[in-house]
TrEMBL record:
Keyword Repeat: yes
PROSITE patterns from the UniProt entry: WD_REPEATS_1 (PS00678), WD_REPEATS_2 (PS50082), WD_REPEATS_REGION (PS50294)
GO biological process: mRNA splicing, via spliceosome
SMART domains xrefs: WD40 (SM00320)
Residue windows of the WD repeats: 28-54, 55-97, 114-140
Keywords, sorted A to Z: Cytoplasm, Repeat, WD repeat
Residues annotated as signal peptide: none
Gene Ontology CC terms: catalytic step 2 spliceosome; cytoplasm
Localization per record: Cytoplasm
Protein name per Swiss-Prot or TrEMBL: WD repeat-containing protein
Membership in a protein family: Belongs to the WD repeat MORG1 family.
Length: 190
């Protein structure tokens, strides 16, 4: 953990367990979650650099981990075992498991649309949208054949100026899906 324009404030040593991804800063504002090569997610206290808890349940290493927006107590993660999972940091328990991908869920391959819908990208070259209330897949987008897998995705609000308006504040926001493929192509859907 670094102070801006300074030096490292803390070094988090997770017992030689290699971390693969991090989710910054969620929960109560004082925690970081990390996905690891030992198939676990670890929750850390930012101020003390102490491990608070370990979440287990994956059969492959954790490739992405993020806090849900506006949900201070929920972590969303994706794994090499092809699943996406939600975890409650208050109870230290798994809440939901989403399955449907035919290959690894990739690093940064999980993005959150709103508090009820998440999406995941995978080496199976699909992006899947999941309803966290019903545990059901809502939609699937197939990447281009030459993409060879989805490795990162993010939702981006783009501002479009109203036609004919001279006022720069007259804008309409559209949400677009941006993803990076295994072949290093960046594509925007919207």
């Amino acid at each position: 953990v670094y102070g801006i324009l300074k030096h490292p404030n803390h070094y988090i040593n997770n017992n030689n367990n290699k971390s693969n991804s991090i989710g910054v800063i969620g929960g109560n504002g004082y925690t970081i979650c990390s996905g690891s090569f030992d198939n676990s997610i670890r929750l850390w206290d930012v101020e003390t650099a102490k491990e608070l808890t370990v979440f287990k349940g994956y059969k492959g290493y954790v490739r992405s981990v993020k806090y849900l927006p506006n949900e201070t107590n929920t972590i969303c993660s994706g794994s090499e075992d092809k699943s996406v999972r939600l975890w409650d940091i208050r109870s230290n328990k798994e809440i939901r498991v989403f399955e449907g991908h035919n290959n690894n869920n990739n690093s940064d391959g999980t993005s959150i649309i709103n508090s009820n819908v998440i999406c995941s990208g995978s080496y199976d070259n699909t992006i899947r949208f999941w309803d966290i209330r019903t545990n059901k897949q809502l939609h699937m987008i197939k990447g281009n054949d030459e993409d060879d897998g989805i490795i990162s995705l993010q939702f981006l609000p783009f501002r479009n100026k109203e036609k004919g308006s001279k006022n720069t504040n007259d804008s309409i926001y559209n949400v677009n899906l941006c993803y990076c493929s295994a072949k290093s192509m960046i594509r925007i859907w919207g």
